[in-house]
Design brief:
With 412 residues, this protein is an alpha/beta fold. It has 11 helices and 26 strands. Helix 1 runs parallel beside helix 8 and helix 9 runs parallel beside helix 11. The chain is globular and about 60 Å long. The two termini are 33 Å apart. The model has no long low-confidence stretch (mean pLDDT 95). The structure holds flavin-adenine dinucleotide. The site of flavin-adenine dinucleotide (FAD) has 36 residues, from helix 1, strand 2, helix 8 and strand 22. The site of flavin-adenine dinucleotide has 36 residues, from helix 1, strand 2, helix 8 and strand 22.
């Protein structure tokens, strides 16, 4: 068979992989398959701008002509039901079978649905796709009370978007702080205070017990500590689960994600996994992690395209992320899990500051609120493997930029 690369999933990772393969000079056939009917689109605006000013055309990742001009066959509304790694074939749910020489799994993740009484009531929704966003937008038109369950990035963004639209918003987070898995405590405290000041009722350390419904429609949220919050709509923002069923059935190694090596190769030859569905050993933290971010999806896609085009190498890109919540632009560079020391630069009271996370003297990550220049410099410092001292940070961005440029990026 002539060379053919099939990509399952046309989200941020899959769409980028298809285009990057051509940019890297791949001459074989490329087939990009997704079970959604919409042309590949940007997901971040779904919880931000889209709800406030829905314009689907601005969400399109790449115009259709890009796929056509690059001879990328786009199969939309097509679900891949099985893959067979021995025969190098996959089957679509309409019965079609297609062979490949290389396969990229970019199946993403789906919203986690908590196992709680009443979770199936009308008006209890989650947000992952453009179809979910359309449903939420339509529902919002006739309601006043929204309860958001979960104070992670999507929950916080949704809370601010609903609040701007004039809804009464209550946000319930089970952990002691919002964004607890992702940012420094000082950032969580700041976001909670600022969100409250924006009119959002934020409760932390409060666990949802059940959803009350009337005639099949959501009416209220009950919490374990006995409170009751009226709700005409509930948005679940309690995390995502990777779409790994295809990989499990095909016998690939899976552990909270499709396990890939430093080249993003799965346990089967010629099968790669990238983006939200993949778990890999991150060289910065020295253990397996699964990231859910546009950076991770697109950088891994570029990387795997280089490998397939004959230029393999270990994936070592710096992780970074952003989130827009009301008047706060949050940006994180690096991964702070193992930090034992934190240094704040700037003033939270001015709604502009950065928190530098260290393990000993080694810089691990930087969380920034409305300090985009700090974020960009942090990415450069981390890529170059440069750890500034507190005095360097206090000396200001120009000095840090200089430090970063004095050292070449760490070898790949
Ligand atoms: C509302 C929202 C806001 C976000 N905001 C931000 C942000 O501000 N910043 C940031 O960095 N990240 C953000 N993210 C996360 C980011 O969008 C994801 O990390 C990114 O979309 C992951 O890309 P992916 O290609 O791995 O997965 P996805 O974009 O989820 O794409 C996977 C695709 O695979 C398809 N698929 C799965 N299984 C099959 C199958 N068997 N057959 C055919 N097709 C299949 C799915 O339908 C889906 O279209 C946000 C996510 C959401 C949902």
């Amino acid at each position: 068979m002539e060379e053919r690369c099939i990509i399952v999933g046309a989200g941020h990772a899959g769409s980028q992989a298809a285009v990057s393969l051509r940019q890297e000079g791949y001459l074989g056939e490329i087939i990009l398959i997704d079970d959604e009917a919409d042309i590949p689109y940007h997901k971040p605006p779904l919880s931000k701008a889209y709800l406030k000013a829905p314009d689907a055309s601005s969400l399109v990742l790449r115009p259709e002509a890009v796929y056509r001009d690059n001879s990328i066959e786009l199969l939309l509304g097509a679900h891949v039901s099985t893959i067979c790694v021995d025969d190098r074939k996959l089957a679509l749910s309409d019965g079609r079978q297609i062979g490949w020489t290389d396969l990229i799994l970019a199946t993403g993740a789906r919203a986690r649905i908590p196992d709680l009484v009443g979770v199936g009531a009308r008006g209890v929704v989650s947000l992952r796709s453009i179809a979910d966003a359309r449903l939420i937008r339509d529902m919002m038109a006739g309601i006043d009370n929204v309860v958001i369950v979960g104070g992670g990035f999507i929950g916080m963004e949704m809370a601010h978007s609903c609040s701007v639209l004039g809804k009464k918003v209550t946000l319930i987070e089970a952990a002691p702080r919002v964004l607890g898995r992702s940012v420094a405590e000082v950032v969580s405290t700041h976001v909670k205070a600022r969100s409250r000041a924006a009119g959002i009722d934020v409760f932390t350390g409060v666990q949802v017990a059940a959803f009350e419904e009337k005639d099949g429609r959501i009416e209220a949220v009950r919490t374990v500590d006995g409170r009751r919050f009226e709700a005409e709509m509930v948005v679940l923002g309690v995390g995502a689960v990777p779409n790994v069923e295809l990989a499990i059935e095909a016998g690939l190694a899976v552990d909270n994600g499709i396990v890939v090596d430093s080249h993003l190769r799965s346990s089967a030859p010629h099968v790669y996994a990238i983006g939200d569905c993949a778990i890999y050993n991150h060289h910065h933290v020295g253990r397996r992690i699964r990231l859910e971010s546009v950076q991770n999806a697109t950088d891994q896609a570029r990387h795997v395209a280089r490998s397939i085009a004959g230029r393999p190498g270990p994936y070592r890109d710096v992780a970074w992320f952003w989130s827009d919540q009301g008047d706060m632009k949050l940006q994180t560079a690096g991964l702070s899990f193992d930090a034992d020391r934190h240094f704040t630069s700037g003033n939270p009271e001015e709604n502009a500051f950065s928190v530098y996370h260290f393990q000993g003297t080694r810089l691990l990550a930087v969380d920034s609120v409305n300090r985009p220049a700090d974020h960009m410099i942090a990415r450069r410092l981390l890529a170059a493997g440069v750890s500034p001292t507190e005095a360097d940070i206090a000396a200001g961005p120009q000095h840090l930029k200089q430090l970063a440029s004095e050292k070449q990026p760490a070898p790949a």
